[in-house]
Amino acid sequence: MVDVDWDPESYLQTMLTEIPGYVALQEQVVAATDGLEVRDALELGVGTGETARGILARHPAARWTALDANEAMLERARRALPGADIRRSRLEDLLPDGPFDLVVSALVVHHLDAAGKQDLFRRVASVLSEGGRFVLGDVVVPETPEDAAIEIDWVVDLPDTAADQLAWLRGAGLEPELLWSVRDLVVIRATR
Ligand SMILES: C[S@@+](CC[C@H](N)C(=O)[O-])C[C@H]1O[C@@H](n2cnc3c(N)ncnc32)[C@H](O)[C@@H]1O
Q: Does a structural domain hold residue 145?
């Protein structure tokens, strides 16, 4: 398994340079939580806390549990999110015990291969409360090759199509909808 050696100092600038639509994606991930009462949330791949900060501004009472594989990113996230329970763990590991009203992940799940994504979606469904939501913002393989705006190395980046991921989420017992899609970025909301 190959991991990116993330640097929290340069992370945001790297994202803004390399991911056209990074800011819009984060905004759409936050918007996908509207209308949900978020008491307990789990974030998969918290990074430096960019996604968490946006959602917590909208749901300030939410208890935030988050995981990430990279200790330097976690250290930055702990400073950015002082009240949160932030753990070093991988998406492939056992998820924290639910139930969670919200499970959210931005720009992380594409690091898993197809079988890994399907396995993760089943485990996410099992920790969601009844009526709870999984919000997935990520890079996908676009319907037409001309829409591939983000460079994919096919070593640590293993995106799949939105259509496949919607089918896998359905297979995991969730009701998914594609909420937003611009070129090769999407936000999917899946309800249990
Ligand atoms: C592009 S950042 C996204 C962070 C944040 N969600 C955002 O949108 O800014 C990817 C993060 O996912 C973490 N990550 C990548 N693969 C992972 C895995 N398999 N398990 C846990 N964390 C992972 C990396 O350490 C990194 O912090």
A: yes
In a domain, 6, yes or no: no
> What does the angle CA 150 – CA 17 – CA 158 come to, to the nearest 5 degrees?
30
DSSP, collapsed to helix, strand or coil, labels residue 162 as helix
Per the structure, how many domains does the chain have? 1
Alpha helices in 111-150 (DSSP H): 114-127
| Tokens describing residue 159 | 């995106």
Residue nearest to atom 26 of ligand 1 (CA): 47
Residue 90 alpha carbon, nearest atom of ligand 1: 20
pLDDT, one tens digit per residue, over 154-169 is: 999 999 999 999 999 9
**Any residues with Cβ below 6 Å from ligand 1, and which?**
6, 45, 47, 50-51, 68-70, 73, 90-92, 106-108, 111
Q: Is residue 2 part of a domain?
A: no
Which residue has the CA at smallest separation from atom 5 of ligand 1?
47
> Which among 19, 192, 33 has a CA at the least distance from the CA of 104?
33
The predicted-structure confidence for 131-162, as pLDDT tens digits, reads as follows 999 999 999 999 999 999 999 999 999 999 99
Range of the domain at 161: 11-191
For CA atoms 11, 30, 123, 119, give the dihedral sign.
negative
Structural domain includes residue 62: yes
Q: Whose CA is nearest to atom 21 of ligand 1?
A: 90
* DSSP secondary structure code for residue 72 in this structure: H
